[in-house]
C-alpha cells in the first residue's frame, strides 16, 4: 500500500544507470503488484467522461494511439504539468488563445 499512496500521483523513477536497471525497476514492480491487488475489484479509471471503454486501459490507449487526435483523459494531468512548464517560456500567453471543448461526463459527475 505504501507505493500506491506515494507513487500513484507521481511518475516512477526511470533515470538510473543501465548497470542498476534491475534494482531500479524493483519499485516499479512493487507498485504494479500492489496496484493490481488494491484495484482488482475497484474502479481505477480516473476518467470522468461517458465512454464505453471506461476502465479498459488497453483498448482505450490503443484507440487513442490509432486515431492520434488526442490523449486519454488519464494522461492529461501529466502532460498538462509538462506543457505548463513549457508555457512559462511565453509567460502563459497561450492560455489566452485556448478554449476547451465541452465534454460529455458520466452521470455521477453531472
Structural features:
110 residues, 43% helix, extended
Concise description?
With 110 residues, the protein is mainly α.
The proportion of strand residues reads under 5%
The string of secondary-structure elements, in order, is HHHH
What is the mean predicted local confidence, pLDDT?
82
The unreliable regions are 1-9
Please report the number of helical segments.
4
What's the main sheet like?
A: none
Form type: extended
Number of strand segments: 0
End-to-end distance: 31 Å
CA radius of gyration is 17 Å
**Helix share of residues?**
40-55%
Assign the structural class, choosing from mainly alpha, mainly beta, alpha/beta, alpha+beta, or little secondary structure: mainly alpha
Topology at a glance:
Elements lengths: L1 H6 L13 H18 L18 H11 L8 H12 L23
Amino acid at each position: 500500500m505504501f507505493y500506491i499512496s506515494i507513487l500513484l500521483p507521481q511518475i516512477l523513477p526511470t533515470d538510473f544507470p543501465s548497470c542498476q536497471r534491475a534494482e531500479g525497476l524493483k519499485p516499479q514492480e512493487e507498485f504494479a503488484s500492489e496496484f493490481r491487488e488494491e484495484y482488482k475489484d475497484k474502479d481505477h479509471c480516473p476518467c470522468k467522461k461517458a465512454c464505453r471503454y471506461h476502465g479498459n486501459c488497453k483498448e482505450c490507449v490503443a484507440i487513442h494511439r490509432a486515431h492520434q487526435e488526442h490523449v486519454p483523459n488519464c494522461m492529461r494531468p501529466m502532460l498538462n504539468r509538462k506543457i505548463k512548464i513549457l508555457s512559462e517560456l511565453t509567460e502563459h500567453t497561450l492560455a489566452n488563445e485556448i478554449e476547451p471543448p465541452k465534454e460529455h461526463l458520466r452521470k455521477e459527475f453531472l
